[in-house]
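User: These chains co-purify. Model them together.
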Amino acid sequence: MSRQGNRGTEGKKMLWYLPFISPSASMHLMNSELFTLTYGALVTQLCKDYENDEEVNKQLDKMGYNMGVRLIEDFLARSSVGRCHDFRETADVIAKVAFKMYLGITPSVTNWSPAGDEFSLILESNPLVDFVELPDNHNGLIYSNLLCGVLRGALEMVQMAVDVKFAQDTLRGDNVTEIRMKFIKRIEENIPVGDE
Amino acid sequence: MADKSLFEFLHMEMVAYVYQHQNGDNNNQERGSSLTTLEGMGFRVGQGLIERFTKDTPSFKDDLDVVKFLCKDLWINLFRKQIDNLRTNHQGTYVLQDNKFSLLTQFSNSKQYMEEAPKYLAYTCGMVRGALSNLSIDSVVTAEVSVMPACKFQVVIQRS
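Assistant: Joint model of the two components:
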């Protein structure tokens, strides 16, 4: 694998990414086809249950959110990344560590807004859409909307409120898949009433 | 390569969605229909998966060979382990026992939550049935759990 080759030249800098090249990592890898096909079956079922694409998008986002709040714990337990100091670091961790760990791809982080609170993730390939074609009567469907929910849910659990949207989608004819993430605010920890 | 926990979380959400949607529609509807929905989804996925896995393998000698392939190669591909125990009566009934079924390990280690377990097995039963169907074997697949996370899948081959 080409990753191994880089380790020699950038010794200290790459230490951060080591957890994924460890021998036990292979125990966690599975055939991504199972995940892709299961996701396809799920979207098909949703399209059958709901009449319009907007509802399906909302359901996918909700399901993604529920997954995200659990996934973040799995992620933090298995990777040794510490607290991120700013949004740029967060973006790097998401692209280089999280996506690599869960989907085996590394999107690139680009298009930073001048204020530094918005960026884009460009995915050359999206494992969720292997074997998928959108039929003509589902033009409003954001097929991979689960990803937006996952990112939103995961970041909310680390005290960040973000807005995640698909800006481009290969299924709808664009060249790449682009996810736009915008930082809204830091969520303050709420101390339960009466807990002094 | 995807991560196994992704599939497990997605599966959890799928089960939750199917049950919540059915309950919203029709409170008196039998619970069976949610299981049927999940099994149907698994069926289609199983058909697709087996096509891809058996692209390059030689054809199977008989039913037992097919079931052994399911226990070894298919199970390894899906759950990274083999079926622990296969029993048959040589008359079309096979029992596949998995002592540590990966979709149930996070659930419980004992008899707690036993009533919920079938929901999480329906999808896998569908996958097995779909895989067999695309290898031209008609079957009925059911699952039973006595102590989690071990479970048994019973395959009964239908002869026409």
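The helical segments of chain A are 2-9, 11-14, 32-49, 53-78, 87-103, 145-157.
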